[in-house]
Amino acid sequence: MSHPDAQNLEHYLSISRAVAGELDLQCVLNQIAGAVKSKLLNYDHMDVTVVLATDRSRHVAFETGVNTIWGEVGKHFPNASSPIRELLSGNADFLLTGDAWNDPRFHFDGASASPIFQANLHSRIHVPMMVHGEVLGALNISSHQKEVYDARDVAVAQNIADLIAPYFFALNKGEQARTSAIAEGAARGRERSLRLGALNLTEAMEAERLRLGMELHDQTLADLSAIYLRISQLADAKDPDPDELEQLMDAVARCASELRRIVENAKPGILELFGLTQAIEAQLERAVQGQDREIKTTIRDATGDLLDQSEDRIRLTVFRIVQEAVNNAVKHSGCRQISVELTRTAQSVKIVVANDGLMPPEGWRRSNGGVGNIRVRADLIGADIAFERNHDGDGSQTVLTVPIDLAEAQSEASSDLPHRLARDDIAQVPFEHRNLHVLESK
Questions:
Q1: Kindly report the CA angle at 208 between 203 and 213, in degrees rounded to 5?
Q2: Whole-structure pTM over 0.85, yes or no?
Q3: How far apart are CA 303 and CA 437, in angstroms?
């Protein structure tokens, strides 16, 4: 990724924040569409072409702005018939045209070029999305007008493609794992094997999140530090605007801080060091910091730390669901109290995230990406999820129910639990410990 102009830095980072946590390729494109169009590149049609992980001779496309046959759900197309086949094959660094209607590169025998005319696409930019030196796909931006884009716009488009490529790579690999899991389930017996395949998918997705976290830490933060240094050096330039320089430096510092937070979310170290209860408490404290209202948080674990003895994938999925439910409550309910309670019966472990705020309408829950992520994660481990009004009628709650056989299925690492770091052995713990099972903060 080339170094962006300082004035565009925040726009690029807003794209990174928008796609973080999304589990669907179309959702990723929808999330970045507004930031790209309003701040970076105006367009009438934008789509992302993704080469299939299971068959690199074919691709699928996701569109925003205009719907064409390229983006029809469930359809795969051969790379050889794509108008951008030279880009997908790695034979072109980029494609730029002022009028795709009359550009022979897009029109050849067997080319799937009809949407260019049907959607009135003239000016077009096509740049590759690369991961590990291999073409993952392409970012494609089009306008109804002729001669709109130039070489500078190509550079901006390439920056966007470089930024989103790791996310599409991770989700593409997740889709590959899902396909393999379904095939495995059909071979071994549907109910049991689908559960195992879903757990394998969860593991693959979380492994990609960890990889992205490390890449953000090792690469993106280093790039931001270099940009910050260059901007600082502008202070010695002739007649610089001191106020502007100070604003730019503050903006970069805030971006670095935000990226560090994203990295920590991608690899929750507290979960491994201290267990689920303490990781949830730390998440509660982070979620309520900086809010314009005081939010009291409480966590109670009445299970005897049962989930800390379960498989790592189960424990991590429970943490992610609680994390999303807490964030939704803070952002959308207007609540002043949030509680997390873990209980068990002979049949299940129940995790309830409750708040005293407004309960969102059913339509909001269907359209909210975070709620969708919660449903997917619960399905992947064979757990049930419900969104209910609190029993006293005041506020709402997210209820996750994990079958007891999953909760009690111990991982190989569970035998090492007695050797985990004790909570009081580490001085740098970001919160005070008062009781092992009941913790409260104000």
A1: 125
A2: no
A3: 9
Statement: residue 259 has pLDDT above 80: no
- Rounded to an integer, what distance in angstroms lies between the CA atom of residue 119 and that of residue 45? 8
Asked if residues 356 and 396 have their Cβ atoms less than 8 Å apart, the reply is: no
Q: Which tokens belong to 119?
A: 């959607």
Both tokens of 212, joined, read 């992205």
439 versus 314: which is more confidently predicted? 314
Alpha-carbon distance of 399 to 17, in angstroms, equals 27
3-state secondary structure of 96: strand
Work out whether the CA dihedral 186, 192, 193, 194 comes out positive or negative. positive
- The radius of gyration of the chain from alpha carbons, rounded to an integer in Å, stands at 24
Residue showing tokens 């999305």: 129
* Residue type at position 202: T
pLDDT for position 18: 62
Q: How confident is the model at residue 435 (pLDDT cuts 50, 70, 90)?
A: very low
Q: Is 222 exposed, middle or buried (0-12, 13-18, 19+ CB in 10 A)?
A: exposed
Rounded-to-integer distance, Cα 188 and Cα 200, Å: 15
d(C-alpha 62, C-alpha 65), whole Å: 11
